[in-house]
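Run log, item B.
One chain of 206 residues. Sequence copied directly from the ordering sheet:
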Amino acid sequence: MKADLIKLDGGNAGTVELDESIFGLDPRADILHRVVRWQRARMQQGTQSTLTRAEVSYSTKKIYRQKGTGGARHGSKKASIFRHGGISKGPKPRSHEHDLNKKFRALGLKHALSAKLKAGELVIIEAAEMAEARTGMLAKQVANHGWKRALVIDGASVNENFARAARNIENLDVLPSIGANVYDILRSDTLVLTKAGVEALEARLK
């Protein structure tokens, strides 16, 4: 399938051929959901922690005599029913990560790219390069294109001047092709691929 190719300044640069097995799929929400859940689970720190009865700092003295009080038999203020006592069955540091095989993750990326193309939110530019790292110039070009919350995916590496210029522009993210992922693609309003980025993604996903 063919798609329009434009220049960063808005000029026409012809067309580019897209692999239908990557950009022409019928997007499936269940596949995208599973891959996004896998990504987000990996990002969770899992550092939440509570102190157990053995870890709280408190007196170990028996709080009152065993018999004759008319109350329950307690031996320690560290028990979880007391204020300042240990937490019973509270959270402890753990990994939230779960397995998802490589082929399924690649399939999710294909469906994300296809979803963007089908929704009309995919733009392909000739190159993301600038002679100077000028944020004002790039911001003007982004505004002229009407890109809001855009993600730019380049080839194997990102042009240094372009990356520096984009750094201070709100809602504009830049990634090399190796960093392309389902979550960032879906959360962007406009996905911008360079010609080198298209070639790198197709080589990665074939």
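Observations after the first pass:
- The longest strand covers residues 12-17.
- The chain has a mean pLDDT of 94.
Flagged for discussion on Thursday.
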